[in-house]
Write a structure and sequence with these properties.
The complex is a heterodimer. Chain A is an alpha+beta fold. Helices cover 28% and strands 21% of the residues of chain A. In chain A, helix 11 links the parallel strand 15 and strand 16. The relative contact order of chain A is 0.17. By secondary structure, chain B is mostly helical. Classes of the chains: A alpha+beta, B mainly alpha. At the A-B interface, helix 6 and helix 12 of A face helix 2, helix 3, helix 7, helix 11 and helix 12 of B.
């Protein structure tokens, strides 16, 4: 059986993108600044190989995504502030690097002796903040927090895991129900953080991270301080990290401009263009596969009929939406969840470009003269969802489709509308693996299959692709999956949305993320401050 | 008079009790429950059921109300459903922050509003009066978040004199705290000033047209004495009422200002709790807010009785 080790250079993850191509594309879009300036702003450093000037300083992050109900128990993580704090205090099992590749973290090596078996080597020279040294028991306990009787949403990710067994103090064996060539990347899940065996004091998590918790006021701020020697080389440069929760977007930008924070997350395209004009600031843009989706329920009328679904797919002007709603900070989607730039993206798939005549053709084929549908949307689904609805309405009218956009309250959207309305807006974060993206919403068994699109043939294809170790064959199988979703699925995916963050030029070592934003939420241990 | 005052106080308590019932059952009517709000996009029937049972949401509502009311009387508001921390420990520091902000804003705005209102009334029709009227109309017509953004833009972003964030924490010195809180206080002062000012002015002027005031003028008293000695005591009731209303607003209605300045007050806590359907926190905040509002208004009523000679001795 194939030996898959990161040391042998085998790439176990797929969420990546071609950096060169990404930067070129980004420069074209960032037309306001000069090409060189935009490049510097995007990569976050002027000299590609600059090294930390020396440790020290306090890094201040102004972040959206925190709430007074936040707890530092990884099983409860749902939003970015607790996740970011989690990565400061604790380490994951596997890290996704800037290219989207799975790299060793607390699991330092791995191999797969059989399709359904994986053996992981646990890093042994690592100490917890309480002085205990890391071993296999800690890792097994931390994984099992998310298996069996648990509230953790990561349970679904580990559904395929049959058993996690200790071989010896430094090796564990994971047995799967069905083969998964991407298991290491799957184990990079942000809730899979490692604590000592039997640990339960979540008010003050003990981890192996570069920082120790000093003060945590949920929904207000969090301060962590360097925890002495850190096992990870070239990491944890700053002395302390402060997160200030700023959920209001204008307040976030003001805090950066007035110098109260060094980095802010989640800015929109218009603000990004303004920030780029000011030499004091840098803008970092990441294409992580985050997408918007208008979900049609394939088990309710009229969306039951694929001709209707196709008519709607051709009746939306995606390029215009990316230009207007995202200010260009995004990519046109073609109704399947794998973004262009992913190494398994099927480029041969014909894009669903705006074509009113074609939409009319499918309407006619479905035997419908005039189609009236209602799209339920809210800003809670994704920022700009209502604008997308309005643009869709105008474009669809030219194809003879009367689309009504119903504005739903943001409060309670996920309970009252999502997965209940026959046609509603939603979003999905980018996933580290193609399997992650497919199992989230497209497998029959998925609890968040928000389109009720269930095709046994697709499940089989996805299983086959997941277990396939030959890259070429795998690409073929994943291509077929994408084709099925795009041509038959209920997900209308108009666009992939970039993550944009901004900060002071003092922050060095800052790179775009391959997954989520803020360097996969690990920005704290990666950047340093120029004095 | 004592009886009148006791009646007011009893009425206040009764109102509070009614509010507590409304609050409890009202929050239970909210669509969606804490279990589904907690899980968001990732809710499955199995996970939902587990959480509901774990949180005791399967018991009848009236039983939960009695338990809750009994606890609240002892200052025990239960534990938060989302964070499993004590609700009291969460609400108290936030309430403290809110009260500091409200007190500072009141300290500046109430004397300023009443003073300017008096001045306006004394100089009715003069240039000063018109200027004050115009300015107060301007401030009353712009929404508070806009005032906040403008102040931030000028004093934090352009001039750099004051911080744009009002994050409070233990390690701050008094001066730092004052600087951090300056912009939200200024915003609140601008927002509540006009309402109280205009009320003071119009209450005074309506009394000023009464015959006994004309009598005072005919006696040859100067305008300022007439306003302060004769008109003000009789105009006090509506002024006190509007001041109480605005004080209540300063405590319970400033969530927008809190959001703009990232001030960790109780309003933000309540909004977070509502969006997560964390009912114990919502109910505790609601009850504290209701108590503040009812308390302030009851006190205003009682004060109006005490200062008004005619109410003091009812016929």
């Amino acid at each position: 059986m194939a030996l898959q080790s990161p040391k042998s250079g085998h790439v176990t993850s797929v969420g990546g993108l071609d950096r060169r191509r990404f930067l070129e594309g980004a420069v074209l879009v960032g037309g306001v600044a000069t090409a060189g300036g935009a490049l510097a702003a995007l990569t976050g450093c002027t000299v590609p190989d600059d090294t930390p000037a020396g440790p020290g300083g306090a890094l201040r992050l102004g972040m959206a995504g925190g709430s007074t109900s936040d707890v530092l128990d990884p099983r409860t993580f749902l939003d970015w502030v607790p996740i970011n704090i989690g990565y400061q205090l604790m380490n994951g099992l596997v890290e996704i690097d800037g290219e989207g590749t799975a790299r060793p973290e607390l699991l330092e090596d791995w191999e797969s002796p059989a399709v359904t078996e994986w053996i992981f080597k646990v890093r042994r020279d690592v100490l917890f903040h309480n002085g205990k040294s890391l071993d296999a028991d800690d890792v097994i306990y931390s994984i099992n927090l998310h298996r069996g009787d648990t509230r953790s949403p990561t349970k679904a990710v580990l559904e395929n895991v049959l058993e996690v067994r200790k071989l010896d103090a430094s090796r564990i064996k994971i047995t799967l129900a069905a083969g998964d060539a991407d298991l290491p990347a799957t184990l990079s899940d942000y809730r899979l953080l490692v604590v000592p065996d039997g640990f339960t004091d979540w008010a003050n998590p003990i981890g192996t991270g570069g920082y120790r918790l000093e003060n945590f006021e949920p929904g207000v701020r969090c301060i962590t301080r360097k925890a002495g020697q850190y096992w990870k080389p070239n990491a944890a440069h700053v002395e302390a990290i402060e997160i200030i929760v700023i959920n209001d977007p204008v307040a976030r930008v003001n805090a950066l401009i007035s110098g109260q924070v060094d980095v802010i997350n989640r800015i929109d395209g218009r603000t990004a263009n303004l920030m780029k004009r000011n030499a004091r600031f840098q803008v970092v843009r990441s294409q992580t596969g985050q997408y918007a989706v208008l979900a049609m329920n394939c088990e309710s009328d009229p969306y039951r009929n694929n001709d209707i679904r196709l008519a709607l797919k051709y009746a939306i002007d995606r390029a215009n939406i990316v230009k207007t709603v995202l200010n260009g900070y995004g990519t046109v989607g073609n109704d399947q969840p794998i973004p262009p730039g992913n190494r398994y993206f099927d480029a041969s798939l014909a894009p669903h470009a705006y074509d009113p005549d074609r939409a009319r053709f499918y309407l006619k084929k479905a035997g419908v003269e005039r189609l009236s549908v209602t799209l339920q949307a809210s800003e809670a689904a994704f920022s700009g969802a209502l604008d997308v609805g309005v643009l869709f309405q105008a474009a669809a009218a030219r194809a003879g489709i009367a689309l009504e956009v119903r504005r739903e309250p943001a409060d309670g959207y996920w309970t009252n509308v999502y997965q209940k309305a026959p046609f509603c807006a939603s979003y999905s974060d980018g996933r580290t693996t193609v399997e992650g993206a497919l199992s989230k919403a497209y497998r029959s068994t998925s609890s968040t299959n928000d389109t009720n699109w269930r095709r046994p043939a697709f499940d089989q294809l996805a299983n086959q692709a997941r277990a396939e170790t030959d890259p070429a064959r795998r690409r073929e199988l994943y291509g077929a999956c994408q084709q099925m979703i795009a041509e038959d699925g209920g997900a209308l995916i108009p666009m992939f949305m970039d993550h944009i963050e901004a900060g002071s030029q003092r922050v060095k070592g800052w790179r775009p993320s391959a997954i989520f934003d803020m360097m996969g939420q690990r920005l704290g241990e990666k950047v340093w401050l120029q004095s | 008079m004592t009886r009148l005052l006791a009646e007011r106080a009893a009425l206040g308590l009764l109102t509070l009790l009614a509010v507590s019932a409304l609050l409890f059952f009202g929050t239970n009517l909210l669509p969606g429950d804490v279990a589904s709000a907690l899980l968001g996009q990732e809710a499955t029937p199995e996970a939902l059921h587990n959480i509901r049972v774990a949180l005791g949401l399967d018991q009848p509502a009236w039983l939960r109300y009695l338990h809750w009311l009994g606890g609240a009387l002892h200052g025990d508001f239960g534990t938060s459903l989302t964070s499993a921390r004590s609700v009291g420990a969460q609400v108290l520091p936030r309430l403290g922050n809110t009260l500091v902000l409200a007190a500072l804003a009141a300290l500046v705005s109430v004397p300023l509003a009443v003073g300017l209102g008096l001045l306006s009334a004394m100089r009715e029709g003069g240039i000063l009066d018109r200027l004050i009227s115009m300015l107060s109309l301007v401030t009353i017509s712009v929404p508070e978040f806009f005032v906040g953004y403008v102040l931030t833009l000028v004093f934090a972003v352009q001039l750099g004199w004051l911080p744009s964030l009002a994050v409070m924490h233990g390690g701050m010195g008094f001066g730092e705290r004052l600087a951090a809180i300056a912009l939200p206080v200024a915003t609140l002062v601008i927002v509540v000033l006009a309402h109280m000012l205009r009320m003071t002015r119009s209450a005074l002027l309506s009394v000023m047209s009464a015959p006994y005031i004309e009598m005072a003028f005919l006696k040859g008293l100067p305008r300022s004495t007439v306003v302060l000695r004769h008109a003000l005591p009789n105009a006090a009731a509506p002024i006190i009422a509007v001041v109480a209303l605005n004080l209540g607003y300063l405590v319970v209605g400033v969530v927008v200002v809190e959001a703009v300045f990232v001030y960790p007050g109780a309003g933000q806590l309540m909004v977070d709790a509502v969006s997560k359907r964390d009912l114990p926190v919502v109910q505790a905040c609601g009850l504290v807010f209701a108590a503040t509002y009812v308390g302030l208004n009851t006190m205003a009523d009682m004060l109006a009785i005490i200062v008004n000679p005619r109410l003091r001795r009812p016929r």
